[in-house]
Amino acid sequence: MTLAAGIDCGALAGGASSPVRTGAAVGGAPFVQAYGRGAYAYDRGGREYVDYLMAYGPLLFGHAHPPLVRDLDAIAARGSVFGSTHEEEVRLAERISAVLPSVERLRFVSTGTEAMMSAVRVARAFTDRPAILRFAGNYHGHFDAALHEAGASAQTSDAAPSGIPPGVRADVIVARYNDLADLDAKLTDREHQLAALAVEPIVGNMGLVLPAPGFLDGIYERARRYGALVIFDEVITWLRLGLGGAQVALGYEPDLTALGKVMGGGFPLAAFGGRADIMDALAPAGAAFTGGTFSGNPFSVALGHRVLDLIESDPGMYPRLDARAHRLAAGLRSTLAELGLPYPVTQLASMVDLKFRPGPPPRDDDEAAQADGVAFSAYYRAMRERGVLLAPSQNELMFLSTAHGAAEIDRTLEAAAGALRELQAKGVI
Ligand SMILES: Cc1ncc(COP(=O)(O)O)c(C=O)c1O
């Protein structure tokens, strides 16, 4: 039985629909949300919190953004799921290809997990090879091949029965992010079994970790050398970094890409796509099967159009978001400096990350794992007491939305200064 603010969550396996939500990593009662508006989450008592969870990324426009949630009943009135192809679905695919040139063809799914799982299957089918190389601390969802030694936000142990069969592990190679020497060492004697290298080009699942110069080039070079494909997991980064995601921002054309989170405007919508000849490996043209009752449903697709409409009609949106996030990061850095605390703050677009590990920002999962979990837990609780809701795990980021204005940033910086001072006075940091 898990008691959360007076709610018995025992009917939910493990107390929540996703493990991180229990707050097990930070202790205390899990946050139970009653509703959300703009930049704010509200608990059952009606208390408001500046929300940096933003549902772990999708809410680029905050909760219940009027242009997104307006007239939803009119959409539903035309039918919320068809089971047949529809025009808006084709049009949305065309709009996505127009901004992501590497995605010549795509297939819609409902979650990021499905998108990555399907991309991996297509890569295996196209190359007729079994092995996938991933990087520790990158999260690609909860399918077997993605979870084996995922590290960071999805700790699984080979020692304990985790439900991942040994046969799956045999075809998954896990290397250290930002470390081409480790990549080469792990690939030794496996090169010609390699179907794909899968990577979060900018990682949002061990905190915010940026690729070191030459790292992504090195991945491409190995892929070309060994006849393997490159899969970019842009489930977080697409539409967080702009219409072109990380790939256009950094100048890459991955063979396959997984998309999700922001694209559905708060509803389940995801996709995978890439080069036309590779995507032709999918049934019915090819032998690789993926499908889904809710894939491309008109409700989520309509929201997908609304998200792109909002972004395309407001060229100032990303610079504004970046400026807000920049101000938040700068404010956090100046408080840390004032208190003599050597913790790094990383910011990119609307993502901000404070790591309780002295020195420069972590470059890989081993370094990220050195962050002080006790300090983070105390910080999480101190922030929550002050009306700021962070993700209850130091592997997650602070996500800003267009609803996070100057007032919310000020309030957050004041809370952070108070929380950090309190923790320092108590000797926690
Ligand atoms: C980079 C990345 N890929 C894939 C996923 C899985 O997406 P979903 O939770 O929609 O299955 C996530 C989820 O956090 C993610 O961050």
Write a structural description:
The chain is of the alpha/beta class. A 7-stranded mixed β-sheet has the order 6-12-11-10-9-7-8, with helices on both faces. A 4-stranded mixed β-sheet has the order 3-4-5-15. A 3-stranded antiparallel β-sheet has the order 13-14-16, covered by helices on one side. 35% of the residues lie in helices and 15% in strands. It folds into 2 domains: 3-64 and 315-425, Alpha-Beta Complex (Aspartate Aminotransferase, domain 1), CATH 3.90.1150.10; 70-312, Type I PLP-dependent aspartate aminotransferase-like (Major domain) (Aspartate Aminotransferase, domain 2), CATH 3.40.640.10. The two termini are 33 Å apart. α9 (245-250) links the parallel β10 (229-233) and β11. The protein has helices at 66-69, 72-77, 87-99, 112-127, 144-147, 166-169, 180-187, 215-226, 245-250, 276-279, 298-312, 317-338, 365-368, 373-385, 406-425, and strands at 3-4, 7-8, 33-37, 40-43, 48-51, 105-109, 131-135, 172-175, 194-199, 229-233, 256-259, 270-274, 345-348, 351-354, 388-389, 398-399. It binds pyridoxal-5'-phosphate. The site of pyridoxal-5'-phosphate has 15 residues, from α4.
